[in-house]
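DM from R.C. (forwarded with permission)

"hey, sorry to bug you on a friday — could you get me a structure for this? deadline for the figure draft is monday and I only need the backbone to look sensible"
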Amino acid sequence: MLFHNVGYYYTIVGHVLWSLSRVLAGFCIAAVLGIVLGLTMGWFSYVRAIFMPIFNLLRPIAPLAWIPLAILWFGIGEKYKYFLIFIAAFVPFTLNAYAGAIHVDKQLVGAAKMLGANKAQVFFEIVVPAAIPSIFSGAQVALSNSWMTMLAAEMVCATEGIGWIIIAGQAVNDMTQMIAGMLAIGIVGFLLANGMRILERRCLVWNNQGN
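My reply, with the result:
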């Protein structure tokens, strides 16, 4: 059995790190692309006209529904897992960045234009900072979605990771291994959520003071 061949805690930590590396890769790619798309759709009408219909068509599709296509496109290696995690995080990042951009205080924008700010200055110095609290809200949801989707992806096709630990335990009827995997899911998920909240508070000190 898995935990009888190597050190128990070393094995758990190793598989947790595998899972975290997958989440980090998909999450970061989704953050970059989702935030850029959301902000530009929220502020530029021509971008919204082009991409919003496509986004609205695809966003109701659950990440797990992409598994067959992802395996067909990328095989059963790491790329398919990154793709599923990306899909899971991309939607909340895009939606919240879009909401933050479209609800920017119009009076503040008008005042900036009266003072001579051009379109680029308005976007980067007013729209983007004003959307950051909304983006962080999306990041919380995106991180949770990424973690859950990663587990499902590992249970389908993987040879390492927390999801694989549970499936491997089921295959050999090892209750201890399955429970250990489930506990690792809960503990790491809790730490990720609280870590994101701490990061948000530190990055948005100005926003918290204003409240």
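R.C.: lifesaver. The two ends are 54 Å apart (CA to CA).
me: no worries. Residues 119-156 form the longest helix (38 residues).
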